[in-house]
Amino acid sequence: MFSRGLVVCLLAIGIATIIAKCYAAPQADQVGSDESNRQVGKTQNPTGNRASSDLPDHTHNPKDMGSTYVPLDSWIYPALDRLAALGYAERGFEGVRPWTRMQCARMIEEAEEDLEVLYPLSEDAEDLLSRLEEEFSFEIGLRDGQRNLGASLESAYARAVSVSGPALTNSYHFGQTVSYDFGRPFERGTNGQAGGAFRAEAGPFALYVRAEYQHAPSAPAPSEAVLNVIVLKDEVPIPPDAGVDGINGRDYWTLMSS
Questions:
Q1: Nearest-5° angle of CA 166, CA 170, CA 175?
Q2: Cβ-Cβ contacts under 8 Å for 165 (sequence gap 6 or more)
Q3: DSSP string covering 175-235
């Protein structure tokens, strides 16, 4: 069952990748054209002042553009926190996460324009800025007036987790074998997840979908000793003739975020 779900997931990821490439190609051509126009403008205007030939023919207001949120478990937040700790970025709105990709692009531009002038970049900060510029190159271009139209496959992954001993799934009474894992189900045996994230933007609209296929083996019903421990901790009596069934294997799709 898990292998069948994995095949379906990989097929969906492949279709999303093809769609993303179809959208990305025209956008890349537009970016290259705008860059060429800027280079021509610089050649024709050696004084450095922005003349009308320096600007693209059609500019768009970034305030009217839709932008998806950055997932809370993304590597981008630790990277920006590291830049802030080094003194190269503002700690403006730490308490209102998640941030949109346009907000992150604005923070990166401010770090480049202001703080890089005041302080020499350390090797660590330079590496972080380089990675963030590459990640948000599309959004930085939007802030320069480019058209907001694109689609991309954010991530694709598959993993298997094997639990050889008894799986603790009751953290309140006993403990948790796998913790801080977004509530994914797991039992003794081989557990698996496969999923991906897709985002698209068009003008003022933005779409982000992250879905995952999850598999967990079946589990036996709690023993009488386990039920007695729960009763003692909760200080409640066991109802007469209260049967507790086992847990069937779980195979299903779930929407992680959207």
A1: 70
A2: 188
A3: --SS-SSTT----SEEEEEEEEEEEEEETTEEEEEEEEEEEE--BPPPPHHHHHHHHHHHT
For the stretch 164-173, pLDDT in tens is 888 888 777 8
What is the reported pLDDT for 240? Answer: 55
CA distances to 105, 129, 130 from 135, rounded to whole Å, are 9, 10, 9
Residue found by looking up tokens 């480019």 in the block: 146
What is each CA distance from 205 to 19, 155, 234, 244, in whole angstroms?
Answer: 17, 21, 49, 48
Residues 6+ apart with CB under 8 A from 169: 176, 177, 186, 187
pTM for this one? 0.63
- C-alpha 128/C-alpha 137 separation (Å) is 14
Bridge partners (DSSP) listed for residue 153: 198
Radius of gyration from C-alpha coordinates of the chain = 25
The domain locations on the chain are 1-60+150-258, 61-144
The answer to whether the CB of 93 falls within 8 A of the CB of 99 is yes
Count of residues making up the chain: 258
DSSP 247: B
Give the DSSP H/E element, type plus range, for residue 257.
Answer: strand 250-257
Tens-digit pLDDT profile for residues 13-57: 555 445 444 544 444 444 444 444 444 343 444 443 434 344 444
